[in-house]
Backbone:
C-alpha cells in the first residue's frame, strides 16, 4: 500500500494530537470539578454544623428562660402563700 502524501499525514497527526489534547483537557477539567464539588460540600457541612449548633443554643436558651420564668413565678406564689399563712397566724396571737 502506498504511503499517504505528506500533507495528509500531517493532517492525520494534527487530528490525533487535537483528540489527545481534548481528552487530556477533559480529564483535567473533570478532576478540578470533583475537587471543587468536594470543597463546596465540605463548606456546606461546616456551615450546617454551625447552624445546627446555633439553633441548639437558641432552643436551650428558650427552654431555660421559660423554665426559669415558671420557677420564679411558682416560688413567688409559694412565698406569698407562706407570708399570708404566717400573717394570719400572727393576727390571732396579738
Residues:
Amino acid at each position: 500500500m502506498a504511503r499517504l502524501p505528506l500533507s495528509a499525514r500531517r493532517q492525520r497527526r494534527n487530528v490525533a494530537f487535537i483528540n489527545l489534547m481534548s481528552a487530556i483537557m477533559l480529564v483535567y477539567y473533570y478532576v478540578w470539578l470533583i475537587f471543587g464539588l468536594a470543597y463546596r460540600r465540605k463548606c456546606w457541612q461546616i456551615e450546617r454544623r454551625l447552624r445546627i449548633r446555633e439553633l441548639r443554643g437558641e432552643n436551650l436558651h428558650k427552654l431555660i428562660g421559660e423554665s426559669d420564668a415558671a420557677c420564679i413565678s411558682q416560688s413567688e406564689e409559694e412565698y406569698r402563700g407562706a407570708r399570708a399563712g404566717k400573717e394570719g397566724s400572727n393576727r390571732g396571737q396579738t
Remarks:
- The two ends are 136 Å apart (CA to CA).
- The first helix runs from residue 6 to 93.
